[in-house]
Structure to design on (274 residues):
C-alpha cells in the first residue's frame, strides 16, 4: 500500500503536514486554523474522516495553533509529550491526549509513527517518521543541526519534508537583530539551505522519490533560489518547495519502481483512496 503526502502549510505562519494511505491518515503538527485546514484539505480532495490522529513536534505556536478546535471538532487523539503540552499551554480534552516516547512506534490503523529527538529551542522537540508497508516519510523541520538521529532517519526515507529555512547571505545582510540571527544559526535554531543540501547530497537513500523543502523563512530565503540549488543535485528526486501561503499537491509515494504521481493523475481514484 502506498502513502499520500501533502503540505497544508509550511512556515513561521503555520505548519501542518498530511500523510495517509487509502484508509488512515495523520497530521504532523496543526499550526493553521481548523477552518483553514478543512478548506485546504477539501481543495485537495482529502477527507478529514481519514485523519485518525495529530502528532505534535514541539510547542511553538506555528505548530499548535489549530489543535484545540481541530481536536475537539473531530475528536482526534493528539499525541504530544508532557513538556510540550505544559509549555504550549494547550487545552485539550483529557480523553484525546496521549503521550509518546522516542523510538517507540505508535500504530494508527495501518500506519506507524515513530518520533525521535531533535535539536531545537523547545522543551521536548521531536521529528517523525511515518511508515506503512516499509515506506517511510520523514517530517524533519525546526532542526538546529544535522545530528546522528537526523542522518539515520533521513537516510531511510522514500520522501521527506526537510527544513531549508534560510540562505546564509540573506540572513547576514538582513535586518534581523544580532541576537535573532544568532538564535537561528545556533545548534538549536534552524537548518540553512547549505546544511539541508549537504544532508540531501550525502545521506539520501536511492529510494528518495520526493523532497519537500519546508519551513522557508519569509525574510531570509527565496523559493526560487532554494529550488534552483536543490534541482542541481536532484538526480531523479522530485524537489518541491512547500509554500507558506497555500497547500502543495498531493504526492503519491511508493516504495519501489515509479515513485511519482501527482494528484491530478489520481483523481479518478479519489473516492477510494482519500
Amino acid at each position: 500500500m502506498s502513502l499520500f503526502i501533502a503540505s497544508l502549510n509550511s512556515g513561521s505562519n503555520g505548519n501542518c503536514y498530511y500523510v495517509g494511505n487509502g484508509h488512515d491518515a495523520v497530521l504532523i503538527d496543526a499550526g493553521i486554523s481548523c477552518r483553514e485546514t478543512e478548506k485546504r484539505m477539501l481543495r485537495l480532495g482529502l477527507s478529514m474522516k481519514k485523519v485518525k490522529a495529530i502528532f505534535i513536534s514541539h510547542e511553538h505556536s506555528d505548530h499548535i495553533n489549530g489543535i484545540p478546535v481541530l481536536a475537539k471538532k473531530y475528536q482526534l487523539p493528539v499525541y504530544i509529550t508532557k513538556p510540550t503540552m505544559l509549555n504550549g499551554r494547550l487545552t485539550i480534552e483529557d480523553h484525546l491526549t496521549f503521550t509518546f516516547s522516542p523510538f517507540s512506534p505508535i500504530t494508527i490503523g495501518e500506519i506507524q509513527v515513530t518520533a525521535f529527538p531533535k535539536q531545537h529551542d523547545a522543551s521536548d522537540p521531536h521529528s517523525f517518521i511515518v511508515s506503512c508497508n516499509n515506506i517511510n516519510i520523514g517530517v524533519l523541520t525546526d532542526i538546529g543541526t544535522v545530528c546522528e538521529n537526523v542522518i539515520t532517519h533521513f537516510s531511510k526515507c522514500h520522501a521527506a519534508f526537510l527544513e531549508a529555512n534560510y540562505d546564509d547571505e540573506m540572513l547576514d545582510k538582513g535586518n534581523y537583530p544580532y541576537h535573532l540571527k544568532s538564535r537561528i544559526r545556533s545548534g538549536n535554531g534552524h537548518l540553512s539551505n547549505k546544511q539541508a543540501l549537504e544532508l540531501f547530497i550525502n545521506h539520501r537513500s536511492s529510494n528518495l522519490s520526493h523532497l519537500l523543502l519546508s519551513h522557508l523563512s519569509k525574510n531570509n530565503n527565496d523559493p526560487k533560489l532554494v529550488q534552483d540549488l536543490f534541482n542541481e543535485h536532484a538526480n531523479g528526486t522530485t524537489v518541491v518547495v512547500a509554500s507558506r501561503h497555500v497547500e502543495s499537491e498531493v504526492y503519491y509515494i511508493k516504495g519501489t519502481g515509479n515513485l511519482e504521481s501527482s494528484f491530478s493523475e489520481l483523481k479518478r481514484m479519489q473516492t477510494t483512496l482519500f
